[in-house]
């Protein structure tokens, strides 16, 4: 996703010798144009960007540094040209959000992700299931709501989405919710019926904000449909989903420059934590392959209890890090969302990480089996694996799809890894964990035949 400008483009730019000025600039601009168009950036946006970069570079004196800086500034300009970012609270709670978009764009998932985002910020959130078109839609939102422990309003007997939304608003007011998020039905394509329905709902509900959920995989279509929604219904922000995987990231630039509505959030995976505030400077850093340490720190600080991570660090130092702590750390990492996304936030890592881009920490067979093994141990055994006798080991190994030799080996490796981490310790739990992980997965790591 964020490799738009960082990979092939950067290689080419690095090859251009910015000595013979004008010619070098022309070649660099040509390369940039190709890259932008390939990344699905709207042709008007591309033109605008090229003009800006050319002008800026010339002003500062042609060179590779000034070219890249001009590019960075121009990208930031485009992305900051329109209003708000993130979530804006109304002065009169509840803040009411109407989530709109085409079928399958990610509305329902985004409603829940946004609720989760707000809940982590200590807001009282009510979800409302007002998509009555699809049979399973209410059930889907109910399940998501229960997974993040957020309240939901639904009424399976009522056939009118407007009535449901209004009831939810009443409830949200009465019970002093901070935010109400209303999920709506989508259509395959824009039609008058959908537009009429949504306009009607908007009029009656009088939401503080209407968000348009755009699927970034739909490329140029995302820009077109967002424009139509803006014209016909009036939208206050765009949430760009599926901005992970093989997305041509240019769609973010096109929407910002062509629709004239701010991009508010990005959906970067299927899981609940995979939603981030669209902050132009940070996105540009990532587009340029410079990472986003601030964003990463913010993400981890919400999830990681500082006291807990200090405690873990202490344990590692004393060589007391055990399977209980390990399991806890693994679960914490899960809350951070998709690994791919995290990688793009660490400076330089996305370039280095060719091989581990697809690494799915949580679902790797090794981790799944180790977790299964740890889960079948008692807390006491996790603290001190020596307590397990042969029959316990047999039971645990069969439950985890391993054999006893493998279990013994994992325990031994874990012990070694804990020793190793003790030596290397000093920088907190995450570091301890990653050391440990690489110990366990690296050379001579997991027993052969385990998982693969
Ligand atoms: N990879 C990825 N998948 C996503 C993201 N957001 C949503 N999805 C997936 O997209 C699919 C459709 O999401 P929904 O939330 O059901 O979409 P919807 O717009 O509510 O769909 P309808 O109610 O049928 O109109 C689901 O499989 C989601 O898991 C995202 O940011 N990244
Ligand atoms: Mg839905």
In terms of topology, how is this protein built?
Elements: H1 8-15, H2 21-38, H3 43-60, H4 64-80, E1 95-101, H5 107-119, E2 125-129, H6 137-147, E3 151-153, H7 161-174, E4 179-183, H8 192-205, E5 209-215, H9 220-232, E6 237-241, H10 250-258, E7 263-267, E8 275-277, H11 280-287, H12 293-303, H13 306-318, H14 323-335, H15 339-345, H16 349-352, H17 365-376, H18 379-383, H19 390-399, H20 404-424, H21 429-441
Helix pairs in contact: 1-2, 2-3, 3-4, 4-10, 4-11, 5-6, 7-8, 9-10, 13-20, 19-20, 20-21
The structure holds guanosine-5'-triphosphate and magnesium ion.
The site of magnesium ion (MG) has 5 residues, from α5.
Structure description:
By secondary structure, the chain is of the alpha/beta class. It folds into three domains: 8-80, Four Helix Bundle (Hemerythrin (Met), subunit A) (Up-down Bundle); 95-281, P-loop containing nucleotide triphosphate hydrolases (Rossmann fold); 303-441, Orthogonal Bundle (434 Repressor (Amino-terminal Domain)). 56% of the residues lie in helices and 9% in strands. The chain contains 21 helices and eight strands. An eight-stranded mixed beta sheet has the order 3-2-4-1-5-6-7-8, sandwiched between helices. Strand 2 (125-129), helix 6 and strand 3 (151-153) form a beta-alpha-beta unit. Helix 4 runs antiparallel to helix 11. The two termini are 28 Å apart. Magnesium ion binds next to helix 5.
